[in-house]
Specification:
The chain is of the alpha+beta class. It is built from 6 helices and 24 strands. Helix 2 runs antiparallel to helix 3 (167-220).
């Protein structure tokens, strides 16, 4: 007991000293510094809004077709006496080239017969003229004879009245007068028919002349010539073959120009004709109306052909718009024209635009000024803007144009404003931002948005 009591007496002072030291240290030590909670800025990539000119563009694919085609269809029947040796599929023939010549024997005989008929009819007409002269002379004689008969009848009538002439003499004189009058009447009737006979004969000559003209035309039609320089696409004739009227002997594709009907969405085509401002008239997407006004629009077209790693391009022009819209796909055909489709060909570098090639047609409208942004920067119709104090602003924006990977804004954004192109997480409007300019993206947008 005594040893335990001694231990307690020795431990208690030591514990009291330790507690006192700790209390003194705590009492004399300064209070810890208080740190205020600060807002943390979220790092985002931004670009500077810069006005750029952008050309609205629409493109589609289609097959090349010749702008002009020709079917060599004979208008007469005959045996092929001559066939152009170059009339072979793939060959190119010049304008006016003789393609096929048919036998002209039948049509030469028809011309000779028509000429003979004309000569016979003209001779008949001359005969009528001679007959008319003879009848006129005979009628003059009969008129004089009738006058004598009338004088004789008048003399007999006076004698009969005086009682010196018999009734039979009177009757004979009257009968002679009436007979002569009948002869004169017959001659007058014959002369009256002559104008009608001449008219009939004149018309018959006209018929024969028309027959002659037809025969001469048919003779000319025995030769089939090419109306323009073209490439042979089909041949169906040989020397000695009977060629029938209305049956094609060859078909040709013009080489002066080519056409491509590229199918594009109707909505994309509509934006090419969209006015730059509300003051300009709106052009309705009506094929006939578009065709009337598109010639006055500043539209540029190009045609591209991919040949392995090589891209060949031709300048083109919008010729017309197809008259129908596909109800299933909602696409409309824009028909572009490439002039000098063959003459601009270069061996080993630029092939001619040949029928059946699958090419891409692109149409550019006049440039529009606006702010170019990445298409992905628009979220549910809102654009993220960094305010002057680096706060996030969600601004409703309706883009004027969206094509490929860019969007063009013509209203709602000013030059120099900072556009956020990366999405902060979490996305809270008014949050503090740490801005990091994306110069690479700005250069890419400048190239993509530059007007062609």
């Amino acid at each position: 007991m005594k040893s335990g009591f001694k231990l307690i007496l020795m431990t208690l002072p030591l514990v009291a000293v330790g507690v006192g030291f700790v209390a003194f240290t705590i009492a004399t030590k300064p209070a810890p510094a208080q740190e205020e909670i600060a807002e943390r800025a979220t790092a985002v990539r931004v670009i500077t809004a810069t006005t750029t000119a952008v050309s609205p563009m629409v493109s589609g694919f289609g097959l090349v077709a010749p702008a002009r085609t020709f079917e060599a269809i004979p208008q007469v029947t005959g045996t092929a006496e001559y066939v152009n040796p170059m009339l072979k599929k793939g060959d190119i023939l010049p304008e006016g080239a003789l393609l096929v010549r048919l036998s002209a024997s039948d049509y030469t005989l028809a011309i000779a017969q028509a000429k003979a008929n004309i000569r016979a009819a003209e001779a008949k007409l001359a005969e009528i003229a001679v007959s008319e002269a003879n009848l006129q002379a005979a009628m003059k004689i009969e008129e004089d004879t009738l006058a004598l008969k009338a004088s004789d009848l008048e003399r007999v009538e006076r004698l009969y009245a005086a009682g010196t002439a018999s009734q039979s003499a009177r009757d004979n004189a009257k009968a002679a007068y009436l007979a002569q009058q009948q002869k004169l009447q017959n001659l007058q009737s014959s002369v009256a028919l002559l104008p009608t006979q001449k008219l009939v004969q004149t018309e018959q000559i006209a018929v024969y002349r028309a027959t002659l003209a037809t025969a001469e035309l048919n003779l000319a039609r025995t030769e089939l010539r090419l109306p323009f320089a073209a490439r042979v696409s089909m041949v169906n004739v040989e020397v000695g073959q009977l060629v029938r009227i209305g049956v094609s002997v060859a078909s040709f594709d013009g080489i002066a120009a080519a056409e491509i009907e590229a199918q594009v969405p109707a909505a994309d085509l509509l934006r090419l004709f969209r006015p730059k401002s509300s003051d300009e008239p709106v052009i309705a997407l009506n094929p006939s109306a578009v065709s009337e006004v598109m010639s006055g629009l500043e539209l540029k077209a190009t045609v591209q052909l991919k040949l392995g790693d090589t891209l060949v391009e031709w300048p083109a022009s919008l010729d017309r718009i197809s008259n129908t819209i596909d109800p299933k796909t909602g696409t409309v055909g824009m028909i572009v024209r490439v002039d000098n489709a063959y003459t601009t060909a270069e061996l080993g570098r630029r092939p001619p635009l040949t029928k059946g090639m699958f090419v891409k047609a692109t149409l550019n409208a006049r440039p529009v000024d606006g702010i170019v942004i990445p298409r992905s920067a628009l979220r549910n119709g809102q654009l993220m803007i960094a305010s002057a104090d680096s706060r996030l602003e969600l601004r409703p924006i309706t883009p004027y144009l969206v094509q490929d990977g860019i969007a063009l804004i013509t209203d709602g954004v000013e030059d120099g404003e900072k556009i956020v192109v990366s999405t902060p997480i979490p996305l809270v409007e008014g949050m503090l931002l740490s801005l990091h300019p994306d110069t690479t993206l700005m250069e890419t947008l400048a190239k993509a948005g530059s007007a062609k």
